[in-house]
Design goal:
Layout lengths: L3 E5 L3 H15 L4 E5 L2 H11 L3 E5 L7 H11 L6 E6 L4 H9 L4 E4 L4 H12 L2
Parallel strand pairs: 1-2, 1-3, 3-4, 4-5
């Protein structure tokens, strides 16, 4: 298996938390990649074409919505599954995220079990 998950968040403790949540997948050969802002995330997505991206919405340089829109609408990378992570749980934000091409939306604080379950389901492992 050569699957990749990109974790994007400007807060290092959240990246670490998600990494800990998903580290069991590394035993199955899944590679975890990290970015701390939208620009970095976009570069990694273009180069690595991860199967799954956990993408924070509120970030410097380029927010998650913009990254999502570029990946899905401009780069047409429909095979990259994007889950937006946000502290905003309002329906209008959720809808905006889905309109930008996000495949799913999770509200912080997220449930680690749910996150692992979703990742496993998406990777089909």
């Amino acid at each position: 298996m050569n699957e990749k998950i990109l974790i994007v968040d400007d807060e290092s403790h959240i990246r670490m938390l998600i990494e800990q949540t998903l580290e069991d997948l590394e035993d199955d050969g899944v590679q975890l990649l990290f970015a701390e802002n939208g620009e970095q995330a976009l570069k990694i997505i273009e180069q690595e074409k991860p199967n799954l991206v956990f993408l924070d919405v509120m970030m410097p340089k380029m927010n998650g919505m913009e990254v999502c829109q570029k990946v899905k609408k401009e780069l047409k990378l429909s095979e990259v599954y994007i889950i937006l992570l946000t502290a905003k749980g309002q329906e209008v934000d959720r809808q905006k995220g889905l309109d930008m091409g996000a495949d799913k939306y999770m509200t912080k604080p997220f449930d680690p079990d749910e996150m692992l379950e979703i990742a496993t389901e998406i990777l089909g492992s």
